Amino acid sequence: MGDTLPTVATFDCYGTLVDWEGGVGAFLYDLALRRGDPDLRPGQELRDRWETIQFGLLQGPYRPYREILAESLRRYEEERGYPWDPADGIALARSMRSWQPFPDTRPALRQAREQGLRLVIVSNTDRDIIAHTLRHLAVPFDAVVTAEDCVAYKPAETVFRRALERIGEPPERVLHVAFGFRYDIGPAQRMGMRTAWVNRHVEAAPGPERPDHVRRDLWGLAELVGGRGPVPSPGAITTR
């Protein structure tokens, strides 16, 4: 790739720009309280189990994300011994519409945009769900590509091909920024895109891929494309 700087940054949305972990963990913990679960576990543990179920469903035939949310929650509740109520699936999808950006998201995106970087979201969701998230982000994006648009979910390479077609730039000019290592980093690299893994919890990489950059947050995003960061970048862990 040489020294060519990216002109476009694509982003996984939930978990990267928006506090997906906190949103899901809070929802599942509250559900446990409402069900009178005698074996209360931390929200993170509950979320991790639900996400494993969801990831498996995303590998199957495409169906709208609202249906994925409902079915993954139904299976999760079955495991926990809860009586299933279809209203729970509706409530989980509704809760996504109020999940908030991380504190670093808006200022980092605004500064990157000021450096001339085009911003694009590539997300495993439905259009009507992400429409609410865009209101919370309050930063203009040049394009939004959803699973609904692609009739496929990441980590399928179909999603990244569709995003590149929409962007109209060669992959080496695109930096894909993502929290979801197994959803995003591998397929983006196979498409020839540069990658930045947002590793907010300083965890070991769950796969063999080596991202071009590893960050603890989005501060310093502008620096990755040749601009100046807002502050000295304490979020830097490594850069290849």
Write a concise keyword list for the protein shown above:
DNA polymerase, domain 1, disordered C terminus, Rossmann fold, 240 residues, alpha/beta, seven-stranded mixed β-sheet
SSE series = EHHHHHEHEHHEHEEHE
**CATH architecture heading of the largest domain:** 3-Layer(aba) Sandwich
CATH class of the largest domain: Alpha Beta
Write down the overall mean pLDDT. 92
Task: Tell me the number of strands.
Answer: 7
Q: Strand order of the main beta sheet, please?
A: 3-2-1-4-5-6-7
DSSP helix fraction: 40-55%
Instruction: Tell me the number of structural domains.
Output: 2
Q: Report the end-to-end length measured between terminal Cα atoms.
A: 12 Å
Number of helices: 10
CATH T-level fold name of the largest domain: Rossmann fold
Which stretches are poorly predicted, pLDDT < 50 over at least 5 residues? Answer: 228-240
